[in-house]
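hi! just following up on the protien thing from before. the input was this:
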Amino acid sequence: MTYELKIDVSPVYELIDSFMLYVTRKWISNLDIGPDWIRDIDGRIPPQQVSALRQAAEWPFTDYDVLYVWAYRRRPASKVLQFLDELETQSLEECFEQTAPLFPDFTIHECERIKRDYPPLLRLWYEQYFRHAEQKLLPLLIEDASEKKLLESKMGSAALIEYASGGVVIEDIPDLQTVVLLPTIHNRPINMYCFYNTLMIIQYPVDVPSDNEDEPPTVLLRLTKALSDPTRLRLLRYAADDPKTLWELQSVLGQTSDIMMHHLLMLRVAGLLRVHLGSEGEGNERYSVRPDGASDLQMFLESYIRL
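and the predicted 3d structure came back as:
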């Protein structure tokens, strides 16, 4: 399988990420920023602006797949306001023609709705929150993307994707032409991936360094938390031999799909599980143990306790 790997970085992606998380509250209890981030922003933004932003909570979550494609199609090195200006001035027909080939059932009416409704709210979000965070975050994203580009020549595309994402493995996807790796901070420690007809976008987390060396590193806390549950330990034992589907894991461990997805998320963000993505697309992933995870646990534990 051959595909082109691109490593992209832009404040536009982080703008969309942060807006999505604030509006939808999706995964917020599993993210490093946590619910306190929401409460802090709610306390700083005028109530009428909060209400305006929160109206997007009722809109389809799949809208963000479209927004990420538009961010990917942006002019190189474009800034947030430049991106929004260009999106607003671009004709509906041109916008639809650039987007529709990646979405099998995308309609011009959906394109019109997303193009009309999101830019004003993204501008509001930029003014009220993101412009204050951008200067701190962007250097970290640029630095990490540069490191990954240097590693690509040494590791190869498949190994770099798994390393950067902490376990995403791309298998046989015949029509796949381009994989885009995006560093992200707001979403940490979760990996997000979006399938399109010929394109896959994978967002991988970039950890923010701690100023306090006495505090346990975040990676170590994720590992020990993930391993503290007996069900998750049994899951790792069962998935150690070969990749297992969600249904297979549910059957053996006797858990509902919602509970199982929670356990899988905890193990994935800790870097203990691989997720295998094949031609079946989202919802048909398989999971296997990531051997590097056990090595990471030993390394971070020994480093922290100074063995």
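Residues 108-155 form the longest helix (48 residues).
Residues 4-205 form one domain.
cheers
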